[in-house]
Amino acid sequence: xxxxxxxxxxxxxLTTIILFIIVVVVLVMIIAFFLGxxxxxxxxxxxxxxxxxxxxxxxxxxxxxxQYCDQxxxxxxxxxxxxxxxxxxxxxxxxNGDGEADYDLINNKKEYHxxxxxxxxxxxxxxxxxxEVHSLQVPCDLGKERKGNEETSISCSF
Length: 158
Known about the structure:
Helix content is 36%, strand content 15%. The chain is α+β, with helices and mostly antiparallel strands. The protein starts with 13 loop residues before the first helix and ends in a 5-residue tail after the last strand.
């Protein structure tokens, strides 16, 4: 019976494996350059680092609105509920599925549509905004506030 202690096993050294991986990555980059050209690679890099406004999923936005409603109801003063996240937060949503939030070109500038949580948001616009406003129609009873002898429902507005 032979004693094999102190002998190295047969196999590839780690440096050879790392060198092979680097060579494969470089070859893939060269092939991508020749097949796609510099324009395609440049646009891909721009999309990765600068990107587009992809938009929020509508279902996720509605769920966030429900949570914002719950958070606003915890606020002690009824008057602060009008300025709660439920009333002020808006979402940019990709409704047409093209990978970018819906927008209008106004003076050669993209104005992304704003989707607010509260019903009735589409009937007004925040100051300084010229794009479209939509409502996600998530109801939230913000409570009542007393003005003199009258009690009125608290509602969101711009």
